[in-house]
Specification:
The protein is α+β, with helices and mostly antiparallel strands and 183 residues long. 29% of the residues lie in helices and 31% in strands. The strands form 2 sheets. Strands 1, 2, 3, 4, 6, 7, 9 and 10 form an 8-stranded mixed beta sheet that branches. It has a two-stranded antiparallel ribbon with strand order 5-8. The longest helix has 23 residues.
């Protein structure tokens, strides 16, 4: 019962923020990661306040470098214990929940984690790259393609129109951490 009440409270809070963002259109700086396990499976999360399977990630704190932010976010969301390598794949612009967003996409290889449900994350899943769940968001699919495509992020971008990914505006950009205040 308490989990249900917490979910209602978090969802209500998120909807109120979205209503404010509809009016103010703030800029949002974020990070996301395609996390690969040692077995080569992709780790996705289900948030308590948004539908679908998504990549782990979140917002940057004031003057925080994207590389620092992604490790912090993965420790918070997945309880990341270890990893072999983190590579910056590309940046992308999008408009999440009426905000103007710029995010860095990373590829994290051979990650070891101990994910447990929290106020923000209700479930974790590991999926083969070619067998993502139907509930994976279209943006998630595009970002996975950008990180795992043999031709790099440019190959993924050329194959995805904005209306195919469910976001009114998404554009993949070259990897440039200087685009972020702490980068």
């Amino acid at each position: 019962m308490w989990r249900f009440l917490i979910r209602v409270a978090v969802t209500t809070f998120q909807r109120a923020r979205t209503a404010i963002w509809f009016v103010t259109r703030p800029e949002a700086l974020g990070v996301h990661a395609v996390v690969l396990t040692p077995a080569g499976r992709i780790v996705l999360v289900r948030q308590t306040y948004s539908p679908g399977w998504r990549l782990p990630g979140g917002g940057l704190k004031l003057r925080e470098a994207p590389e620092t932010a992604i490790v912090r976010e993965l420790r918070e969301e997945l309880r990341l214990a270890d990893y072999a390598d983190i590579r910056h794949i590309c940046n992308f612009e999008h408009r999440p929940e009426y905000r103007r967003g710029l995010a860095a996409l990373f590829l994290v290889e051979r990650a070891v984690y101990d994910g447990r449900p929290s106020l923000e994350i209700e479930a974790f899943g590991e999926f083969a790259p070619d067998a993502l769940p139907p509930e994976a968001t279209r943006l998630t699919r595009l970002l996975i393609a950008a990180a795992t495509a043999g031709g790099g992020w440019q190959e993924a971008e050329s194959g995805a129109a904005a209306d195919e990914i469910g976001d009114a505006f998404v554009r993949l950009l070259p990897p440039d951490l200087a685009a972020f205040p702490g980068g």
